[in-house]
Write a structure and sequence with these properties.
14 helices, seven-stranded mixed sheet, about 425 residues, alpha/beta, 2 domains, Aspartate Aminotransferase, domain 2, four-stranded mixed sheet, single chain
Length: about 425
């Protein structure tokens, strides 16, 4: 609010595909998918139609003692997509609530197994998992956490496997193997107190688009098995095809014990989050006493409209083989962005699936705000994280959308780096 006299709020009237349209008649390419939720594009007709149909049948009903077709279908489809390894679904309303659910479920599951001391968590340096108090405890970004340090129960933080840390002769996999030893050392010493490690698979988003090799996840899986610790994969930002496979974990060939989904799963239309879990964890909560069951509820858990939107999103992804088409889109956009790489201040240009990021050397303190402002002038919505500029656009981009996006990004970078 302090900045707004100088940086007025942009009032958005409507949206279509990758475009946002302001009340003032200006338009903006949503290059950050409205904080990574807009998966296909704004107002995708199939999702709009599904929501219209659902409105004619059922708006919402509490998910206690009652159930409904969209939530059952969605749970079954997601379970099948994990080869039934994560065969149970628990519903929340947003990303942070999914993380709360997962960490409570993990600690409570260990109590059921008579490991009452396993109540601590591990997260990666630069990890972000949301801003409620439990989620902040496993978030290692000082800006979000520091004012509430007295309220949160901090997790153990282990060094991440950021591929940019490669030493001469090392590749990203070697970094992952080296950095996994820190986790091993911690678990070796403290596994009796640790319930779970929470990670954002392959890309740590809010930490500044930190990319790492899938080998790190294989190491996490093996160490969690060896030391009896749960692995919670937070796929809130990276799930739903964002890194190229529907679940980012698929690229490592390993499944976590608990997996959080949110953001893009409803296409960005409605708040929805889901925690998928393994059969062993589910069974621990089948108890006569309610307090021994998993007593966690949200008024809007499994909202029928949000679940119906998610089913429509899965239909579009499947029927149109969107993830295969995204590979072509990504190749085109990466090629069109090449002029940016050549700028001497641009470092570590990286891309995975439908995420692009690069760092800017010697960025001034107000770099992010400058890029945002120059972006708006160039019909582009960009919100760099510190010195890191990134793109997380909606998937369904035509060739000309991609060219427009690339041209605008190049124009913004040329002006900002001039
Ligand atoms: C990896 C990750 N986890 C959790 C969250 C929190 O989600 P929400 O903002 O819906 O609470 C985010 C949001 O950016 C995220 O990127």
């Amino acid at each position: 609010m302090k900045w707004h006299p100088d940086l007025p709020l942009v009032s958005i009237e409507r949206a279509d595909g990758p475009w946002l349209f302001g009340h003032d008649g200006a338009r903006y390419f949503d290059a950050v998918g409205s904080w990574w939720v807009c998966l296909l594009g704004h107002r995708h007709p199939a999702v709009v139609q599904a929501l219209r149909d659902q409105l004619g049948e059922l708006d919402h009903v509490m998910l206690a003692g009652l159930t409904h077709r969209p939530v059952v279908e969605l749970s079954e489809r997601l379970s099948a997509m994990t080869d039934k390894v994560l065969g149970h679904a628990f519903y929340g309303s947003d990303g942070a609530s999914a993380v709360e659910i997962a960490i409570k479920m993990s600690a409570h599951a260990w109590q059921h197994r008579a490991h009452e001391k396993k109540q601590s968590f591990v997260c990666l340096a630069g990890g972000y998992h949301g801003e409620t108090l439990g989620a902040l405890g496993v978030t290692d970004l000082a800006g979000f956490r520091q004012p509430y340090e007295g309220l949160v129960r901090p997790a153990y933080v282990v060094p991440n496997a950021d591929a940019r840390q490669a030493r001469p002769g090392e590749d990203a996999r070697a970094v992952a193997l080296r950095q996994a030893r820190h986790l091993e050392a911690l678990l070796d010493e403290r596994a009796d107190q640790i319930a779970a490690i929470v990670t954002e698979p392959l890309v740590q988003g809010a930490g500044g688009m930190i990319f790492y090799d899938p080998e790190y996840l294989r190491q996490v899986r093996a160490l969690c098995d060896r030391y009896s610790v749960h692995w919670i994969a937070d796929e809130i930002a990276v799930g739903c095809g964002r890194t190229g496979s529907f679940f980012a974990c698929e690229q490592a060939g390993v499944w976590p014990d608990l997996l959080c989904l949110s953001k893009g799963i409803s296409g960005g239309f409605l708040p929805l989050s889901i925690v998928l879990s393994r059969e062993e964890i589910y069974r621990l909560f089948l108890h006569e006493s309610a307090s021994q069951a998993f007593l966690h509820s949200h008024s809007f858990s499994g909202n029928a409209l949000a679940c119906r939107a998610a089913l429509a999103v899965l239909d579009v992804l499947e029927k149109n083989d969107v993830l295969a088409a995204n590979r072509l889109r990504a190749t085109r956009l990466s090629a069109r962005l090449q002029p940016i790489l050549r700028h001497p201040r641009v470092k570590h240009f990286r891309q995975i699936g439908m995420i692009w990021a690069w760092d800017v050397a010697d960025a001034p303190a107000d770099f992010s705000r400058r890029v945002y402002r120059v972006g708006l002038r160039n019909q582009l919505l960009l919100r760099p994280i510190g010195k890191t500029v990134y793109l997380m656009p909606p998937y369904l981009l035509s060739d000309s959308d991609i060219d427009v996006l690339a041209d605008s990004v190049i124009a913004v970078m040329s002006e900002v780096l001039a």
